Amino acid sequence: MKYVLVTGGVVSGLGKGVTASSIGVVLKACGLRVTSIKIDPYLNTDAGTMSPFEHGEVFVLDDGGEVDLDLGNYERFLDVRLTRDNNITTGKIYQSVIEKERRGDYLGRTVQVIPHITDAIKNWIESVAVIPVDGKEGAADVCVIELGGTVGDIESMPFIEALRQLSFTVGEDNFCLIHVSLIPVLGDGEQKTKPTQHSVRELRALGLTPHFLACRSEQPLLESTRQKLSQFCHVPVANILNVYNVPNIWHVPLLLRNQRAHDAIFEHLDLKRVANPPDLREWTKRAEIFDNLTEPVRIAMVGKYVGMKDSYLSVVKALLHACIACSVKPNIDWIAASDLEDDTAVSSTACVLVPGGFGDRGIKGMILAANYARKNKVPYLGICLGMQISVIEFSRNVLGWEEANSTEFDDQTPKPVVIFMPEGSVAYKGGTMRLGSRRTLFVTSNCLTAKLYHNSHHVDERHRHRYEVNPGIVEDLERSGLKFVGKDETGDRMEILELTDHPFYVGVQFHPEFKSRPGKPSPVFLGFILAALGRLDQHFHYYQNGNV
């Protein structure tokens, strides 16, 4: 197994995740099989209980793992299916060591950070690295590891030490360290290298020496800057990569390819004999199409966490994938649901999307948006909470149940149209929701959603919820035109709803955004954008004639 470690210095938020993903893309384009691991030094066991305002979205995996959003980048860039164990946290490591201590596995020895915590980290990395994530048999060729945070953080010290030991154990030609750092430009216009010098010095003091520098900058690095970095950071000029600002992140793998990063990495890891020249034709085409999009489609995103746009990162990416497939440019109106008091903000958009969320803040605004889309026949997509909102709105304004509500917002409501799942836990929040890939069966093939999934009898999508539509009120809703066209395998859990006599009014209990990929957009999002453009019927006609 070959390991590529990506660390960060100077400041957080430099784009280590995109850099790590892009390195993986280039290596995969050379014919190698690639897997990824993200290390998050926080004490949380996973990202499931974190606020989106603090840490961005919680990405959900097939196995129900609630993980850092960077794993979403890995899955989208590399088109792989990761597991919860591909996200290592301090909480997971300490929990596993303490469980062993309680069982007596350490035979009475004093349990310490070194060697017990560091050994647990190394063992975790080595065991997860060999798990296939690309649908093929056998281990990958290269494991790209991203260490979260910034070098020098106290909380990441055990991981730094474990990775130092790992690099020594596997040998120099099996371990490559790429350090992502910032090259700022101050008032005099000079590209400053001192922050990177200090960051590398800190890393070297901890026992790790970078083999490559990935320098983030607004403009391309000057040759003099490269020479200075090489001299003071002890990194060859050829190994100084420049990840400067580009129109979209799909250009980053192309930047690395153009700087021949793959050749330098293969030279260091002794992979030249098995690697091919990178084939990034599809990636290049996709990046160029994105750059040249001009026709806009205006999308109203009515959510709870719009102040932190990373809270809906996968939704935004899924919209982008669908828009590129339709050759239009997404123009998202970020509308805070808690501020929405009338339909003025949504009335000038082509479609309305209400994404997932928790808690009662902003519910009134979401209901208003769903009402506007339903009455004015504007394409509507409700995801998770957004589906439940459409049920509440329909119950109040069509069935006349003025007190219809979710027990999440009012546990004493006389008309509970959305209820707590019977198997849910009240005492514990973390890891107790309905999580991961679950099967949805289509009740009928004569519905928009089934057609978007090419008339499949079922679909497997990822879930993250603890409330669901009350099955006791389904007949009332369906008699009035709100049809539940997708249900779980028991038939009791509502998964997909559609409104009759509407161009596109769809709610899904699952999160289709988590499985959307560049070049393979989520069918639900694709239908949503096609409906906004008035091209959905044309799309169906195209596929009915045998086109693929």
How would you sum up the major sheet? 9 strands, mixed
Our estimate of the beta-strand percent is 15-25%
Structural class: alpha/beta
Average of the residue pLDDT scores? 93
Strand-helix topology:
Blueprint: E1 2-8, H1 16-29, E2 34-40, H2 52-55, E3 59-60, E4 66-67, H3 70-78, E5 87-89, H4 90-103, H5 113-129, E6 142-147, H6 157-170, E7 175-182, H7 194-205, E8 212-217, H8 223-233, E9 240-244, H9 252-258, H10 261-269, H11 281-291, E10 296-303, H12 313-325, E11 329-336, H13 344-347, E12 351-354, H14 363-375, E13 380-383, H15 385-397, E14 404-406, E15 415-420, E16 434-442, H16 448-452, E17 458-465, E18 467-469, H17 474-479, E19 482-487, E20 494-499, E21 505-508, H18 523-533, H19 536-544
Parallel strand pairs: 1-6, 1-7, 2-5, 2-6, 7-8, 8-9, 10-11, 10-12, 12-13, 13-21, 14-15
Antiparallel strand pairs: 3-4, 15-18, 16-17, 16-19, 19-20, 20-21
Task: Tag the structure with descriptive keywords.
single chain; about 550 residues; alpha/beta; seven-stranded parallel sheet; about 35% helix
Provide a compact summary of the structure.
This protein has 548 residues and is an alpha/beta fold.
How would you characterize the overall build of this protein?
By secondary structure, this protein is an alpha/beta fold. Helix content is 36%, strand content 21%. The chain has 19 helices and 21 strands. It has helices at residues 16-29, 52-55, 70-78, 90-103, 113-129, 157-170, 194-205, 223-233, 252-258, 261-269, 281-291, 313-325, 344-347, 363-375, 385-397, 448-452, 474-479, 523-533, 536-544; strands spanning 2-8, 34-40, 59-60, 66-67, 87-89, 142-147, 175-182, 212-217, 240-244, 296-303, 329-336, 351-354, 380-383, 404-406, 415-420, 434-442, 458-465, 467-469, 482-487, 494-499, 505-508. It has a nine-stranded mixed sheet with strand order 11-10-12-13-21-20-19-16-17, with helices on both faces. Strands 5-2-6-1-7-8-9 form a seven-stranded parallel sheet, with helices on both faces. A three-stranded mixed sheet has the order 14-15-18, with helices on one face. Strand 7 (175-182), helix 7 (194-205) and strand 8 form a beta-alpha-beta unit. The protein is globular.
